[in-house]
Amino acid sequence: MTTVTEHLEALLERIVPVDTVTVPLSEAHGLVLTQDVTSPVDLPRFANSAMDGYAVLSSEIAEASPESPQLVPVRGDIAAGDGQPHTHRPGTCWRILTGAPVPEGCDAVVRVEDTDGNPHEVLIKAAVEAGANVRPAGEDVRAGAVILRAGTRIGPTQLAVLAAAGVAQVSVTGPVRVAVLSSGDELVPVGEPVGPGQIHDSNGPMLAALVRAAGHFAVHAGHLPDDAKAVSKEIEHHQDYADLVITTGGVSKGGSYDAVKAALTGAGSMEFTEVSMQPGKPQGFGLLGKREVPVFTLPGNPVSVLVSFEVFVRPALAARAGMRYSPVTMPAVVAQGWSSPEGRQQYHRVRLSRDVSGSYAAEPVSGPGSHLVGGLAQADGLAVIPAEVTEVATGSQVLVLPLRPVAEIEADLQAARQDGDGDAADGAGRGQGAR
Ligand SMILES: Nc1nc2c(c(=O)[nH]1)N[C@H]1C(S)=C(S)[C@@H](COP(=O)(O)OP(=O)(O)OC[C@H]3O[C@@H](n4cnc5c(N)ncnc54)[C@H](O)[C@@H]3O)O[C@H]1N2
Ligand code: MOO
């Protein structure tokens, strides 16, 4: 059998980023820059006030103090957005608002708190240094300077600097459009009645959500029947527009009933592999069609789908999007041991809590069966158990791949702790609270 690492490395070698496109900033969130971006302007664009107050020439009020305030005529107001070319006239000042352009010839702003606030003739009660409360042009970014490097993923703060600099469109990789296809004659979309022997499709909605949560575009394109010809035709259609295709089901040893495997064996560079992992053993991957679209054929069991996505598809999607990616695992102490199959890397569903030392403690959720979707929904993460380990001992340390944002796991643990504290104090004895 192929190891997890071998399979992952082999498929990542064949994944190239999707084409570069130019998109307006409104569509750039989450995409990766393919070129350095330089700022066409200084930031701040012009010298402006950092405070509500009075714009002055500092040398003219050098003697002002609380004991001997200085009376200065006010020439008018300058609000943020004021485009008039205001200038300083000796012996006077301007009332100015935060963000408003500092008039030519003024070199500082006295805060309103250090004055009597009069709009016509102000009593200034403090001297200021030249430059005080003025945000100089180009202090943050110089025109022509690189503000973001190629390879940067555009998040909220990167959007902010691009918008501030007036960069209205950017060259990026992607977006990555993913077609999700469930297979199996037993499947019925949720919302429709199931007949005898049928089940609702849960892999389709889960995969589409996983793709979207990873920051890509997903179309749940429907169901493939247990018919190899129909499967081939449908997948050929998606090869024309999708940047990545994920199917679930129909890849084990059921012969013609495993229609995905039957249809795609020998197509493009498709290879069907048994990977030494549990769950997720039957894997298929290859590039199909003129556009060499990466196609993942995942096994049908819901937990196998989830694990296969986390281990193989998530890194591949990142590579397709031009992103760097490395999984983050959390160390945890095993609260209650379990066994693991010999020679297979196990991904065991666990729920996390805190032990007395404050470390994460991992306890198994439901059994190891890869059909147990109810237990899957209770899991905080997957404990990764190396292939050579057959007994995961209570008290040993494991690495856990989180399945939920760590901030949400933390918030639940904190709430459980608070419930626990309350129980101890009021003696109600409700145990560990809602979780
Ligand atoms: N003789 C053998 N049988 C099986 C083997 C084996 O090595 N020898 N491997 C087992 C393992 S491991 C897995 S995993 C599954 C993989 O099977 P398939 O990929 O062919 O998947 P299906 O048979 O189509 O479905 C498996 C299971 O999952 C349910 N399913 C499928 N699609 C969905 C969906 N979209 N939503 C919810 N549930 C779904 C399906 O009804 C089956 O119960 O093969 C084992 N068999
Ligand atoms: O390896 Mo299967 O993928 O147990 O569920």
From TrEMBL:
For the MoaB/Mog domain, which residue ranges apply? 179-319
Show the catalytic activity.
Answer: adenylyl-molybdopterin + molybdate = Mo-molybdopterin + AMP + H(+)
Instruction: Report which residue ranges the record marks as coiled coil.
Output: none
Of the GO CC terms on this record, one is: cytosol
Q: Does the keyword Magnesium apply?
A: yes
Q: Which GO terms describe its molecular function?
A: metal ion binding; molybdopterin molybdotransferase activity
GO terms classed as biological process: Mo-molybdopterin cofactor biosynthetic process
Which InterPro entries does the annotation name? MoaB/Mog-like_dom_sf, MoaB/Mog_dom, MoeA-like, MoeA_C_domain_IV, MoeA_C_domain_IV_sf, MoeA_linker/N, MoeA_linker/N_sf
* Pathway(s): Cofactor biosynthesis; molybdopterin biosynthesis
Pfam families found in the cross-reference section: MoCF_biosynth (PF00994), MoeA_C (PF03454), MoeA_N (PF03453)
Q: What is its EC number?
A: 2.10.1.1
Instruction: List keywords of the entry alphabetically.
Output: Magnesium, Metal-binding, Molybdenum, Molybdenum cofactor biosynthesis, Transferase
Q: Where is this region: Disordered?
A: 416-435
Q: Which PANTHER family match?
A: GEPHYRIN, MOLYBDOPTERIN BIOSYNTHESIS PROTEIN
The similarity comment for this entry is:
Belongs to the MoeA family.
Q: What is this protein called?
A: Molybdopterin molybdenumtransferase
